[in-house]
Amino acid sequence: MASSPHNHHGHDLELEEDHNNNHHIVLNGDSKTHPPKKPRLSSFITESEIRSEFAHHDPAIARINNGSFGSCPGFVMEAQRAWQRKYLAQPDDFYVNGLKKGILHSRTIIKDLINAEHVDEVSIVDNATTAAAIILQQTSWAFSEGKYDKGDAVVMLHYAYGAVKKSIEAYVTRAGGHVIEVPLPFPVSSNEEIINEFRLALERGKRNGKRVRLAVIDHVTSMPCVVIPIKELVKICREEGVDQVFVDAAHGIGCTDVDMKEIGADYYASNLHKWFFCPPSIALLYCRKSPKVSDLHHPVVSHEYGNGLAVESAWIGTRDYSPQLVVPSVLEFVNRFEDGIEGIKRRNHEKVVKMGKMLADAWGTNLGCPPEMCASMIMIGLPACLGISSEKDTLKLRTHLREKFGVEVPIYYRVPKNGEVGSITGYARISHQVYNKENDYIRFRDAVKQLVSDGFTCSSL
């Protein structure tokens, strides 16, 4: 028997098998039959079972872009449908007796996964962008109410996610805050390059008697992707008197190591639909216990306002909460793999590095960072002869690869430095997740080699 989330009476919402290997979802003692699944062949999930779990993926596409939208296995999708049916069957009872209990169960699992001190430190929100809005809203209020002086600084990385940059503009700049971007080199060769630039940015923020009120630090940058040495940067923030530290880890949980006690940030946000197999959309927001936590509120105000962020976030009006309720089923799925999520992360890292080196060797280019500075994604330089000269070129080339070669992969434009001629200006970001096969990357390798052989340039698109 494979259990999935708790129902609203505190019993398990269960998947059962009969003698014909039909799965049954039990709702209040009623059994509904669903299509048969193959019996498990070993103690750990097999390759054929993995293929079955992701059979809904388009077989015509080499999907090497898990980083953008993640992936959800069939087992979890089935559990989600059971929760949706449960809600639609009797919404009033579900809301009164089931929703909060189910979300608390998910929060408890997340608390253990990230090594938080207490479940009250964990809220569930829609995505990392929502989490950023919650933190930046608080910062905006502090400027508006005079707790922070006009011109005090918020520091963020130059490679911060675009939506987070816009949120900082919307909340902080408009309220009178001074925004400082930390320039980062790319390609990058060491953590010391990042640390040095971060120290310089903090110094700029403290000029003329001003203070750095908030540091927004990515755990894994999106484009270009690099694992940031967050523990070192958080430590520097403490030494330099930065008021609060928010780690934007959209790619954190399931992609790289996440431990709240080791990281030591005030706030940490991570999507669970990117690398932790949840359906979209769900993210955790960790808020370390402090007096400032009471100032945090969900930007959608409901009748739960003032009852604490976790409670506010658990009800923001009528909507589909099923992604927040399937976390127990996701945990069951990942534990079918050897060493669970830790084993998945380790194998994804090893395989993405191997595939990245294979592509760089085939194209005569280079990786965007050393292997130890990547997690489950890595950047590979594209041949300079492709003529990538703008962001627009990257979008056109990405579309061309999808439509002509069946390859889905994001591409980054690197602005050449002064004096550079014939340098690599385009980098591909490849991901590796459990459903990927080596042929996915071979297809990408051969597509680029064909483009080069044909004399293709982006100017022809």
Automatic annotation (TrEMBL):
Q: Which Pfam families match?
A: Aminotran_5
Name the InterPro entries for this protein. Answer: Aminotrans_V_dom, PyrdxlP-dep_Trfase, PyrdxlP-dep_Trfase_major
- Keywords from the named record: Pyridoxal phosphate
Q: Which domain of life is it from?
A: Eukaryota
Q: Which Gene3D superfamilies match?
A: Type I PLP-dependent aspartate aminotransferase-like (Major domain) (3.40.640.10)
Give every Aminotransferase class V domain span.
Answer: 102-292
What PANTHER family does UniProt report for this protein, alphabetically?
HERCYNYLCYSTEINE SULFOXIDE LYASE, L-CYSTEINE DESULFHYDRASE
Name-wise, this protein is: Glycine dehydrogenase (Decarboxylating)
